[in-house]
Each structure stands twice: as C-alpha cells, then as structure tokens.
Amino acid sequence: MAGKSEALQDLSVAYVMQPVAAADWLIVAPVIWCILIGAVLLMLRKRTDLQPLIAIPALALLVLMTLGLLVHVFQSGTLSMTMGRWLPPFGISFTVDLLGAFFAATSALVALGAGIYGRSDVDDTGRRYGFYPFLMLIMAGILGAFLTGDIFNLYVWFEVLLISSFGLLVLGSEKKQLDGAVKYAFLNLIATTLFLVATGYLYGLFGTLNMADIAIKASELRGTAPLMTLVTLYLLAFAMKAAAFPVNFWLPASYHTPRLVVSALFAGLLTKVGIYALLRILGMLFPFEREELSFLIAIAAALTMILGVMGALAQNDIRRSLGFLVISGIGVMMAGLALGSPAGLSGAILYAAHSMVVMTALYFAAGVAARLGGSFELTSAGGLYTKNAAIAAMTLMLFLSVAGLPPFSGFWPKIMLVKASLDIGAWWLAGAILVTGLLTTITVGRIWALAYWRPAPAGDPDAAALSPLPVGATMALAGLVAITVAAGVWPEPVMALAQDAARGLLDPSAYVLSVFPVEASQ
Amino acid sequence: MRTVIFRSIAPYLTSLMVLFSIFVLLRGHNEPGGGFIGGLIAASALAIYGIACGVAPVRRAIYFHPMAIAAFGLFMSAMAGVLSIFAGVPYMSGLWIYPHLFGVEIPLSSVLVFDVGVYLVVVGAISSIALALEERDRD
After folding, report:
1. Residues A451, A96: contact at Cβ < 8 Å?
2. Residue of A20, A40, A42 with shortest CB distance to B67
3. pLDDT tens profile A153-172
4. Domains of chain B by residue range
5. pLDDT tens across A2-12, in order?
6. Are A14 and A90 in contact (CB under 8 A)?
C-alpha cells in the first residue's frame, strides 16, 4: 500500500509545471512570427509596393530570433516546450537542440537573402500571386521542421512547406512552370505519403510520436518489433525528399522552371530539410538500424555524388547545371550519414549548412549573370568578366567553395568526411568524395571559362547599354559570399558547433532530459 | 440554375445557413461542431448565393476578398496562442475568463478565439475556390 501512495505522490509532482521563462519563447517564436507576418502579407496581397517593406525587416528580425535561439541553446543546452500545457508525450513538443538551432539560423539567413533578392527579381505579377506570403509560410514550414520534437508534427511541417512550395513554383502560371510543378508535386506527394505510412506504422509499434519518447522506447522494442522495415521506409521517404539517387529525378525536372529566386531558395533549403530528417530519425532515434543500412546508404551516397556531378557537367543551361550540383552535394551529406561516426555526422551537418548558403548564392550569381549577359545558356554567354569584374570575382569564390577548395566553406566538411571515411577503411567512399570534388571543379571551371572568361560573342550589347544591376540583388549575393568566405577562413566556431550538434545526435540523453525532466531525475 | 424559385429562396437559405454556421461554431467547444465544420457550412451558403445570383453580388456582400478573410483567420488563430505569454504558460494553452453580462456568466476563452480563426480560414479559403470556379463557369 505504501508503494502505491508513493507512486501517486510522484504523479502529482509531475503535474506541477514551472512557469515558462520569457527566453524559452524563442523556441516557438520563429515559427509563429513567420505565420503571423505571412498572414498580414496575405491580407495586403494587392499592395505590392508595401510587401517587401514589411517582409524584409520581418525576415531580418527572424534572423535575430534564430540567432538568439542558437545562442540560448548553446548556453543552456537542449530546450523544450510542450504546447498547451499538455504533458509530453501527449502534447506536441518543440524540442530544439544544437542541430535544429544551427539549421534554423542558417536557413533564416538564406531566407533574408532571398527576400532582398526577390525585391528585384519578382515583378508586380509575381507579388500579386503572393511571393512574399509564400516565402514567409515556407519559412514557417522549414523552421517548424527543424524545431519540432514530434514526428507527426514533423510531417505536418513538411506539408506546410510543400504546399507553399507549390505556390512558389507556379508564381505567374506559365506553361513551363506548370509542367515542372506537376512533376515536382506528384513525386513529392509520393514521398510525403510514404512518410505518413511510416509514421502510422511507427505509432502502431511505439504508441507514441514524441521523438524523445521514441528514443527511450526504441531500445526496449528492438528485440521484438520490426524496426528495420520502419527505418527503411523512412530512409526511402526522406531520400526522395532530399533527392538522393535513385529517387532524384524530380529535382532536375523542376528546379530550372520557376523564378530564379525561388529556385535559389529551393536549392538552398528544401533538400536540406530531407537531410535534417534523415539525421534526426536515422542518426538519433534508430542508430542501430542505421548501422545495418550504412552500406546501402554509402552506395547510394557515392552514386548520388558521382552521377549528380556528371549530370551537371553535361548541361548547357546554368540553372540545370546547378540543379545537378545540388544533388551531388546531397550525396556528400549522405556519405556522412552512412559513416555515422561523430566526425562523419559533424561533416554532414557542416556540409548541409555550407550547402544552404552556397547553393542559394550560386543561383543568385546565375541570375545576376543572366541579367548581365542576357541568357542562362552557356553557348551564347561570354565576356561577363569584362562587364563586371566584382560580380565575376564573387562568382569565382562561390565556384571554388562548391568544389570544396580552400579557403572557402566547402573545404572543411569535405576534409572531415574524407578523414572519417579513411578512419574506418572506406577508401572507396573517400575516393568518391574526392573524385566528385575534381569533377565539380571541372564543371564550374567550364562555366567560368565559357561564361566569364571567354570574350563576349559578336553582336552582344555592351555593358553600357544594359540596365544597371539592382543594388539589393548584389547585396544579397555579396552577403552570402561573405558568409562562405568567413566560414572558410575562420572555421573553428562552426566546426565546434557542428561537432557539438553531432554529439547531441549520437547521445540523445540531453534531448530526452529536456522533454522528460521528472522521469530522468528519478 | 437561375430559376425564379431558386433565386427567390437563395437569400433566405443563405442567411439561415450563415446563422446556423455561427451556432455550430459556438457550440463546438463541448459538443459536435466547431470552427472547421461551421466554416464549411458558411462557405457552402456563400456558394449557393453565388450560384443563384451571380458571383459579383457575393463579392460585394462579403466586402473583403475571401483570401484576406482567410489570412485574418490565420492571424487570429496564431495570436490566440500568443496570449499564453502573458500567463507564463506554454504556447496554445487554453485560458479562460468568466465575465458577467446582465447577470449571465459567459465563459470566454483563447480556445474560442482560435476556433473563430479556424472558421474564418475555412470560410475564406473554400469560398475563394468556390467563387473562382463559379466565375469560370460563366465564361
């Protein structure tokens, strides 16, 4: 009897909640902010002149919020808030560890760049179709996915970002855009359905959707429940989202059709959400199953890298070429996931953050180049260096960064990954990363030689006849270039951050503790 | 569809359905109903009015663009959760006040604000689609 009353006492303790500190609101603030501003912009849909004036300061504030969240998480460890005073695992938790906060801050920076660049790239028609509201709502989806601690809620944020991305893809409803959007929508809906099926299956096995709760229960269920099937389903669903070989064909089919700033945003952020989900679910929740699948993931990673960059080499349209480079980068991140060691995972995390910034900046550079030279086609481009040497220099930095050459941000994560592969004797994976680097250098070298270095073809309008470059577009490009240079020259802070984030994935006890403080203290 | 019977009955039917949708919205907290189903009823009321009397009178009658109504609903729902910040409780906690109006206790809550927001989102979104489809039909 005494034992029973003791149990009752414990339960009552569990129901006493600490008041929420104001700083903890940073956990949900980025998502709420995006939704609120998105709603306001939608109400002002016809005021196309006002929209960027509201959206750009709002995105700047979003950057501050996510940076504040990153600092807060860095100082006080993983944070958690469970909605509506329901207790976890019943309420929906937002749980932010370093990985989520790091990705959130990087993606907010990229979104600010897109907001500024979009001011000159998206005309009044595009704004009336709702570029800025969709931009805010897609950010709500992306940030929600990075910050949530509930697997079904993750699915919901995937839906939010998917629906906003449909809107952004067909901005202006041109025929070519609708064609790209149909392929994109169909294949992404299949991936989302697989995700939902897997989540239903997971709920049937675990009886919970809270990630911290799943992390606790996974070790008990490992002997009896068919977890391999579950994890393989998740791997397929998220690999499709991330555009890994052999389910990557939707990306080259659609990424060159929308407006340039939309392509840039998608290339920077959307596939990385798939990578984030893979890291979170395979890396943190099911490490044993990931270990079993690691050879398969490694082969897929190597093929994604090599075939992606070969596709990039074969293209004539710069945008298509960049789309294939996005895929190739996904292969590099998958290699880190396949390795699963602290060095491998931190390499994948750092490469993902690098890729968010650099891929977006590369699309911006292609847009600026098309504005200067009048075309995305390599065959008809030329002489960009003489037209604007500063833009050409920034583009060269981005090219070297995406190829993984020092002293830019792409260099360090590749070093980490090559070293991590050699440590476990996976020489072929290290070789694939290095060969990809070489082929990427050739690809971007070809673009550089043809579009920038070659003299302008005859009959080309000279620089004076062209309209001047918009200041905002140049600033957005320069800002992102500055980030990749800074992260390349001074890599220690970001590397330390990525390593801490990887440690948090491999040992989820801090994550669990932040959601279930009472249970863990017993 | 523009028969005399339908055209003369549509305004009454519409006002009745809008009234009923608000009733369904308000009883939704403790009984079957709520913002989503109420919004669907209101949107179908507007659709009926549009079929009977044309889309232009409907757009005039609701004054705001349906999309703006949906956006306001979204704003309202999100703000309903933000109220929790003043009470020091997590986002989206249900907060209640019990004012007495003419001797009757009226329970009001942030949940109701959220539900009204959902109602507006559904009315705005669905009627936006329905009115666009009806307009296309006329060409």
Report:
1. no
2. A42
3. 999 999 999 999 999 998 87
4. 4-138
5. 444 444 445 55
6. no
